[in-house]
């Protein structure tokens, strides 16, 4: 981002007449940090209160904060802002002027800030103060965002601080630079050339994350290689850590549990073996020597073939606590994933995370966080919240969202995930009565967790626009904002993002936000309506595959999840079936179990129902399903129309790119509808509702489609 | 390139004061098409003769030519060029004004041009004329290059035309976007999103190639998948062809010989089988329907495990001619690679290409070109020219160079390959007496070939700087220039490149070109001096591996090639050994065989000699080898010093990147020297010459180094 920003700033300095033409040359690399000039009238008003930026203390982060503020203001308001005002940045510790103001900063904590407007000798003074340098930087980004979104800045007293302590991106990036479930090019980590070569992109990455409050990055895939813990790779991680440090971003590593064997020369990785414990302690010491502020380990153990403590008859707690003891003295944490399901376990896969972890509540060390996916299966377009939330009051539980759209159309479908995450965070676990939302579990309020975490599986790659598509940037942004405040409104976040990324013009943000807010529901409709799930193509998860059956294991098939037959469809998870509902608090379980109470969005997740089951629309279930498939396709029609109307507000390059992607999405939505209908019709033999077009191809034709080079595997 | 160019042009329009700051923001994406402003005095002089660009005929290529000229002149000389002059572009066919001038254009052929300055009503007129639109575009790039390199343009009568007809990049790009032997990120072909999404990079690519006269691209790896010939992939290739067309660049595909079986439903790929022939004819028809100007096929057959006609007892000529018959009616060609060596053949691998192809001279169809690597082994830092050149007067032979540096330090070592290619092209085959250079074989003069070809294995990827490093761009550039004129001077090419890519300031170009000109020799010295070859790490070819032995086949080991033992070192290819020399014309064979005549650069390629063999320096062979290893390392010291001195002339970002890469190269050069010496010393037990530092590590330590994630495999 740096180069184009710099260039842009210079153009501005040279004369402000170029905006319309420059707008044609955007590729999205700037993300939401687009400091494009405000209209002349607006800019003049802002300039009156902004003024010049006072010098700051000589620390790396404060220098970054000041440079960012200067750059942002120059872009938005021009180089000359001589209205007489001043902006003062810093901490009471490093700035006597700020100390003298005695601003109340307790609630700002370690990473928050206070922005207050005052007058100083009759002139406007804006103070961006915090207890820490990074808090100041967060304040600077917020201040700029106020201008980017055209809010008033002349009378501010704004205090904000993150509600969650660890706000982390999880990169499923491999050491060969491929990215598991990555749809935006290669890994941005150029491991081969690190530590010598520091791609300017690393700085851009740090800056983007800091601007939304993300404070950590797990650099490597949870399906980890032990090599990432060897000396050369520690040095590479240290180089990244050095680049990220001024931006308040710590590095973490995924640790392969069998590393003591693979790189430690031991015969076992048994967590109770003294030599194994010594290996991990020494390894932690080695890492902290190179990276004094190393964040800690993320571990996927005994899941999908990964090694783990159960290989030695030990528990997840044994494994996690051993690692926690190694990093604990250095201030590090261990994030232990609850995404487990065993080959041997014949039970409903949706129940296994809960079954394996709930019994160990209270047995994990204080610096362990159990990292739980939002739902019990695997990042589907819609899942009910994971039953572990609310069920482990004595264990730090963190949330794992997937920003990359493994199951929602890769980077080619426009699906704003803020609404999905908000839906989960606002879900009520009833763990301590009504209002015990998942958000309150995650932010620690409900159970008093000592460590709180929100993790997002990154959608970032080497594509010039970072995320593979312009609108997928919104998911990175929304994740950061929700990690900062799990109770934030996804609509407000979408509005800010659209304004900062494209234009604050309400003629744009109004329709664009509306389109974003409905986009995920459209995907649910055309892919997996009414609680259907995991019906994607085998392995690559691209396109429809409701026919997927057989193979290595039942719960890697579609038929396992939809259980469609001549009589009906759906997974009975009530007491008459797998009884997965019993893992939820009684009021939740009761609601999910009761056909008169359950929201139909979750219907077939919990119930197996006859095709002629009467839905609330009055339509039989089959007709309602077909209706929703078609509704999803029509919704994409609507998105295309909306976007076409928005062309006056968007540069040609980005407008054209989004339009092209929407055309792909439209075609693939139709394909999802048609292939799903063809398949289910082959099962139930029912006619289509009146007015519904039959699939243009035979079921065999859909089944024959193969995608040998699908990305992300 | 487009966005930053556009932006840049705008900045210029707004005021020319920004150059020093802008220079800090470069990342190399602009390549040699950097139209940065000339100094005020120079610009004024140029403006006097340049003037405005006259309207052109409404064809895609002429529109591109005019836009490119406008953009280039605006960048170099500013928007206002109202000195009264005019530039006239076009062909006699489309421009009555040009037709009226009756310029002699015969020698310009189909792709060349004439640039002539005239006066028109007392005002300067510059005419860029050609027989074809693409010739005009080539002329425009040349005209701009004259200004970029600060040559006089006020009195021009310059005619130029390519000496080689097919000037092609070979992309070893796989359909999953990995690149075999690629060291600059992923393939720029985003197959997954094609044909819908047309990355702006495709246009940048076409433009860069057109500017140096490259007129074709083989899109996929010679180790090909049949999928690339299926309808979806033909559509993707057609989308690229559409983007490239105005720039005079045709697309070609690598064809997997067994495609009739894999995608044609046949049981055989026998080239004499009527169904197989029908398959290829239909396939060619299908491709030409989608891509009317499709170039043809490139085939790697019966080589390194690839299928081919020999699987059916047929010859290379049988296979090539069958494909040639399929594409011939459409004007297409078949490039059939001579890089073959069989598992069964126990003979010196250096002999096999010649042995397998020479007997078929005259049996290949007219539209077949046999594509021969520059040397008989495999793109080593130095190889004698391939003995097939000059040996097949009745068969179109084309040259295959490798631009990507598989064996010369990947993209992290600075090695300008222009000198290597010039060395090969200037080598005298003596096929028709003295002066029968490889260049004259390749450009067709020697044997009157009906089709001439120079192919280069591309070094292009998604890295923002295209080639993985700034200086590797020079190899792409030099390849294009040498394909246009195989007798061009690599030093003149380096000078043009350095001037266009960095600055025409001679205080820069003098030392920079000197550094480039010596750089490949440095690599030869620290990797494989005196005719040693193929001693790189197994499979990935990264770093030293003279100890590599055993495994699948002897000629994939290092010991096969250096044959070092207690007594001596080198591969005896004279009459007392494999007699590979006999494949060359007698004068060449005699020179290579005779220890008193052979250039010592090729010594150990052809001779096995005792360690105490007295070299021309007076030193024994072992001492001379050590001396050369160390000389190579010292040469990199010199490159680092040169580059440090050049910092005033280069923007900080690119200067820093090159400096970082040189530091890596210095470290790795030392590693090559040390590991090679440690190994050969373990064989010969000889002491080091006085003053030579012993390797810091044990041989075992060097051998133990492993690079599991080396790129390009």
Provide a descriptive summary of the structure in words.
The structure is a homodimer of 713-residue chains. Chain A has 713 residues and is α/β, with parallel strands linked by helices. Chain A has 3 domains: 40-160, 2-Layer Sandwich (Chitobiase, domain 2); 166-502, Glycosidases (TIM Barrel); 525-571 and 608-704, Alpha-d-glucuronidase, C-terminal Domain. Helices cover 38% and strands 10% of the residues of chain A. Chain A has 23 helices and 15 strands. Chain A has helices spanning 2-14, 19-22, 40-50, 60-77, 96-101, 133-148, 200-211, 231-244, 259-262, 274-290, 316-327, 352-357, 418-426, 438-442, 473-484, 490-501, 506-527, 559-562, 586-593, 603-606, 621-645, 652-684, 699-704, and strands at residues 52-53, 86-90, 113-120, 123-129, 157-160, 166-170, 216-218, 250-254, 296-299, 333-337, 368-373, 397-402, 453-457, 568-569, 609-610. In chain A, the strands form 3 sheets. An 8-stranded parallel β-barrel of chain A has the order 6-7-8-9-10-11-12-13. In chain A, helix 11 links the parallel strand 9 (296-299) and strand 10. In chain A, helix 10 (274-290) crosses helix 11 and helix 13 (418-426) packs antiparallel against helix 16 (490-501). The radius of gyration of chain A is 26 Å and the shape is globular. Chains A and B meet through helix 1 and helix 22 of A and helix 1 and helix 22 of B. Chains A, B: Belongs to the glycosyl hydrolase 67 family. Chains A, B: Residues 468-691 form the Glycosyl hydrolase family 67 C-terminal domain. Chains A, B: InterPro entries: A-glucoronidase_C_sf, GH, Glyco_hydro_67_aGlcAse, Glyco_hydro_67_aGlcAse_N, Glyco_hydro_67_C, Glyco_hydro_67_cat, Hex-like_dom2. Chains A, B: This is Xylan alpha-1,2-glucuronidase. Chains A, B: It catalyses: Hydrolysis of (1->2)-alpha-D-(4-O-methyl)glucuronosyl links in the main chain of hardwood xylans.
